[in-house]
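re: the backbone from monday

yeah here it is again, tokenized this time
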């Protein structure tokens, strides 16, 4: 029997009607009871928390990270499934992946429809997540939803309500569910894992600021004044803003703030193409371009970099490391 541990954190998959809306309430064992457990698996449930994921904090995400590490300290465990709310699942998945140093899989899943719904997608997603956790290795942390298996890096919520909620707009799934089990399509590129942050490390403020027509540096500068140690600038196009914002970035970096640049465009990388406040100037001002990572995961990369070092230059290096990846292995293998 393969041993899989389900870590329950709440979300829609565990949500019941509260009189005016849904909120996470069901325990992990109740959620597991809705799904068909694949043959040959022994499943243990850890009720870690029960929260709508829009309310999730960095402290809770780090608790999840440490819990995953503690569970994997048992060599008898073959894999982990984390049930999670979809609002911030992409952020937790990427944080786990940045620190994941084990060939055994960690699989995140959830639901778009609440616990007990007649047309609920949670039971199928949980079944597929359990099967994936028992079948694959060396894929890092993955997201299983609507019959697809996505690498944590780059995968975001792309639909607010539909069952096929997750995708990598700049990439493709790493595996898929088939009649004969889990079929691996490719191996995702992943940098060497970061070490776990010390438990007593103070949690930094990391903010996200979006650029738009008529935007000035006000909110960026406000984040700096509020004590942000990191800021993600969500730029336009391939990573462009204005000369005034570029100047604000330069001043923030000079004060030791770690600044990253992503884009509000759904797919494609940010790139140094334009000046007059564009990515050319933002990079020259000390900002780090985040490739194809979008805002939520770019913030997680900045957070992880800040937690890994105290020196601003070392933090920037750690961020660049978190953004990198190894060359993917050959595709087409079967799990």
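seq for it, each position gets an aa:
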């Amino acid at each position: 029997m393969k041993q899989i541990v389900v870590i329950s954190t709440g979300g829609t998959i565990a949500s019941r009607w509260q009189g005016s809306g849904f909120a996470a309430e069901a325990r992990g064992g109740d959620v597991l009871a809705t799904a068909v457990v694949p043959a040959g698996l022994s499943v243990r449930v850890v009720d870690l928390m029960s929260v709508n994921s829009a309310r999730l904090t960095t402290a809770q995400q780090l608790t999840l990270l440490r819990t995953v590490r503690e569970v994997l300290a048992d060599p008898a465990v073959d894999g982990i499934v984390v049930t999670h709310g979809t609002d911030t699942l992409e952020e937790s998945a990427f944080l786990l992946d940045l620190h994941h140093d084990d060939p055994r899989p960690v699989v995140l899943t959830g639901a778009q429809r609440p616990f007990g719904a007649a047309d609920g997608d949670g039971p199928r997603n949980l079944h597929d997540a359990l099967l994936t956790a028992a079948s694959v290795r060396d894929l890092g942390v993955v997201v299983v939803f609507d019959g697809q298996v996505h690498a944590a890096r780059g995968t975001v919520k792309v639909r607010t309500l539909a069952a096929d909620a997750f995708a990598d707009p700049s990439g493709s799934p790493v595996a898929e569910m088939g009649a004969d089990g889990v079929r691996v399509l490719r191996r995702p590129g992943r940098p060497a894992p970061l070490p776990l942050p010390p438990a007593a490390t103070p949690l930094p403020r990391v903010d996200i600021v979006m650029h738009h027509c008529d935007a000035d540096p006000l909110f960026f500068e406000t984040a700096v004044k509020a004590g942000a140690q990191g800021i993600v600038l969500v730029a336009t196009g391939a990573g462009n803003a204005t000369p005034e914002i570029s100047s604000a970035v330069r001043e923030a970096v000079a004060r030791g703030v770690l600044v990253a640049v992503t884009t509000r465009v759904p797919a494609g990388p940010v790139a140094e193409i334009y000046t007059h406040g564009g990515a050319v100037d933002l990079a020259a001002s000390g900002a780090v371009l985040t490739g194809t990572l979008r805002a939520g995961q770019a913030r997680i990369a900045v957070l992880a970099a800040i937690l890994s070092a105290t020196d601003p230059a070392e933090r920037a290096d750690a961020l660049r490391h978190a953004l990198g990846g190894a060359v993917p292995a050959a595709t087409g293998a079967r799990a």
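The domain at 206-323 is CATH 3.40.50.40 (Rossmann fold). The two ends are 17 Å apart (CA to CA).
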